[in-house]
Amino acid sequence: MTFPLLFRVYKPRERLLPEDTYLSKPQIAALMIRELQSMGLKFKLVLADSLYGESDSNFLSVLYELKLNACGGNSEQS
Q1: Overall domain count for the chain
Q2: For residue 5, what is the DSSP state?
Q3: Residue 74 domain-assigned (yes or no)
Q4: 76 assigned to some structural domain
Q5: pTM, entire model
Q6: Alpha-carbon separation of residue 4 from 8, 32, 36 (angstroms)
Q7: Model confidence pLDDT, tens digit, residues 32-67
Q8: Does residue 19 lie within any of the structural domains?
């Protein structure tokens, strides 16, 4: 059996209430990783698909800042 350690609900910009703050999926993921680390969880490797690897919030740079090993995809074809 598996279960999430924590979760956050993603809300598209058009569905936000006036008092809500928009966060992209990569921004939410970065916040969750920071929170899990503060709870004492240790990461060996974080995998990310191209949505996270190419995000404007630069999710991968957050992982590097936290000194986490990471592997992220991109959608460019060679």
Answers
A1: 1
A2: S
A3: yes
A4: yes
A5: 0.81
A6: 10, 11, 11
A7: 999 999 999 999 999 888 877 777 667 888 888 999
A8: no
72 is in which domain, residue-wise? 24-38+49-78
- CA-CA-CA-CA torsion for 61, 62, 66, 69, nearest 10 degrees? -60
Q: What is the pLDDT of residue 75?
A: 66
Gap between the Cα atoms of 65 and 78, Å rounded: 28
Residue 73 belongs to some domain of the structure: yes
Pairwise CA distance, residues 65 & 63, whole Å = 5
Please provide the DSSP assignment of 43-76 as one string.
-S-EEE-HHHHT-TT-HHHHHHHTT--EEE----
CA distance 41 to 15: 32
Those residues whose C-beta lies under 8 Å from the C-beta of residue 66, and which sit 6 or more positions away, are 33, 34, 37
